[in-house]
Amino acid sequence: MKERARFQEEIGRWEGLEKELEEIFILNEIVRETDDPKDIDELVARVGYLDGLLSKYEIERMLGGENDKENAIVYINAGAGGTEAQDWVEMLLRMYLKWAEKERFETEVVDLLQGDEAGVKSVTFLVRGSYAYGYLKCETGIHRLVRVSPFDANNRRHTSFASVYAYPELPDNIAVDINEEDLKIDTFRSSGPGGQHVNRTESAIRITHIPTGIVVQCQNERSQHKNKAIAMAILKSRLYELEKKKQEEKMDTLNKEKKDIAWGSQIRSYILHPYKLVKDHRTKIEEHNADAVLDGGIEPFIQACLLFLTFEQKKEDN
Q1: Distance CA 142, CA 76 (A)
Q2: Alpha carbon separation from 255 to 33, 258, 259, 266, 317 (Å, rounded)
Q3: β-strand 214-218 against 204-209: which pairing, if any?
């Protein structure tokens, strides 16, 4: 039923594009006859709107990975740097939530560890919508911030790092065997605001997968059962990604090749002083309006990354 709904949505979007193009042709004939400035303005606007829709559609055509259509689980963690790095995590969280809002994705923060003085030490959030993971897989890696620190009384320039990891939320029909004996499950009281229920009940869940050392936790829901279900879903996705990475590493060893993109390395720099520039080190794309990027304008970087990955895949296939 889920796959059927996706096909119906795909057909509906395509029919909508065809209808929009037909109306543009009709309006174009009217403009040829009347040469009315209002009709010309409307025609230009309609063409621009259709161009935007087709550009997004073209990007989605590049998302042909096994799990690209799935929801995304995103984890951001502060690097070395204390309060400065933790503030950077909060800035990145805001950037991704703003981007998701623009793209009309649903988001839910499921686990957030506040910084000691300011910012956030680590955060896990869900992004729900078609191709959420396909887009956000391009964001996996180390993000670097260079700025004059608001926490430094001497106004010195600081460099901060944060790691971003995106995982697909696996559909129910993918089996990941998890032995209950390999799990250590702890309950605790949620931190932060939440009222009397949060303060009086141990509804938060922490699950440790002993063989791999993977730890996931959820404290967003009031119900312990709901928190456990979300935490298990995240654990399932992380174990799947871990196994997938192992298989890819085996293939790399067999082929004696290394891909140009190493997702665990520094992928992007955000420079706010002495000038403003956001640069992607994989695709060399640059954007001088750093404020717009931090307000969620990461589309050019995602599009360039997807084009690069598509090109690399074609080279590999050949």
Answers
A1: 10
A2: 63, 9, 11, 25, 13
A3: antiparallel
Nearest to 122 by CA among 73, 164, 159: 164
Q: How confident is the model at residue 254 (pLDDT cuts 50, 70, 90)?
A: very low
pLDDT interval class at 171 (50, 70, 90)? low
Listed residue (238, 202, 200) closest to 219, CA to CA: 202
Q: Report yes or no: 143 and 74 within 8 Å, Cβ to Cβ.
A: no
CA dist., res. 90 & res. 124, Å (int):
12
For residue 218, give the nearest of 66, 310, 110 by alpha carbon.
110
Q: For residue 60, how many C-alpha atoms fall within 13 Å in the half-sphere facing its CB?
A: 16
Average pLDDT of the segment spanning 74-88: 90
Mean pLDDT of the 26-50 span: 91
Model confidence, pTM: 0.70
Rounded mean pLDDT of 185-210? 73
Whether residue 90 has pLDDT greater than 60 = yes
Euclidean distance between CA atoms 165 and 209, whole angstroms:
18
**Token reading at 126:** 């869900």
Q: Which two tokens stand for residue 296?
A: 């969620």
Query: Regarding beta strands 141-148 and 157-168, do their DSSP bridges make them parallel or antiparallel, or are they unpaired?
Result: antiparallel
Residue 125, both tokens: 């959030």
Cα–Cα dist 293/182, whole Å? 42
What is the number of residues in the chain? 318
Taking the C-alpha atoms of residue 112 and residue 117, their distance in angstroms, rounded to an integer, is 15
| pLDDT tens-place string over residues 142-169 | 999 999 988 887 888 889 999 999 988 8
